[in-house]
Design brief:
The protein is built from ten helices and eight strands. It is an alpha/beta fold. It is elongated and about 80 Å long. 3-methyl-2-oxobutanoic acid binds at residues 25, 44, 46-48, 86, 140, 183, 185, 206, 216, 218.
Amino acid sequence: MAKKKISIADFKKYKEEGKKYTFVTAYDYTTASIVNDSETEIILVGDSAAMVMLGRNSTVGMTMGEMIGFVKPVVLGAPDTFVIGDMPFGSYNVSPEQAIENCNRMLMETNCDAIKLEGGVNFAPTIRRLTDAGIPVVGHIGLTPQTATSLGGFRVQGGTPESAAQLIEDARKLEEAGAIAIVIECVPSVVGKAVTEAVKIPIWGIGAGPDVDCQVLVTQDALGMYKGMKPKFVKHFAHIREAMVEGLNAFHEETLDGTFPSPEYAYNKAVDIPKLY
Ligand code: KIV
């Protein structure tokens, strides 16, 4: 049965009903079409593309042009899935006007359903302006990879009563500012639960324990494709990397021993070849 694209109203209803759902990343047409064929409700075209697709060691250098280049094919490949375009570092932190301009560009050039930006209380005024301008905004708090250096590196956030309280405050301010949902990354499960209970908008957790409204994973992590760093919260639900290496080795072996391509994989029409040599 064809999947029906989830709406912002559905997310809110799911929260009221306690219904869980999932959200993964995609950065290209083929992966987006695979996610679209699955039950997954949401795709984020994350700036994690910097690491997963471009092999960089940080998300900070991503540009608007690069992000738009990743978002466009995902929207085309996943017509039945809610697609969020991630705003790269430097595209929204200068002024609310700059943020509106770049978020408009993201929505208009890619046709994605919403945008995501990182930041807590300090970004609430920007989110208010974006919301008033008609832009659906997803917030991102906890471990925010674009500013990981200022947070002391890629480490668990909200581990003290003060920092946990700050995350609850961040979530409340983002909700008041009009965010449609908030991603919370890499926090103790009790903090994920407290933040989820503190607001009415959906809380989408990555490494935030079981009590958030929706579980988020990077597809390459969830399917066991990425070879680099594996955070504690990542579970491999499939082992696609091994399957791909095995498949490529089978192609290599059959090429070397001559079993590929057999007639089944060749154009077998007889043709009289003129004697030109
Ligand atoms: O860029 C990204 O993939 C993200 C997710 C980790 C939520 O922001």
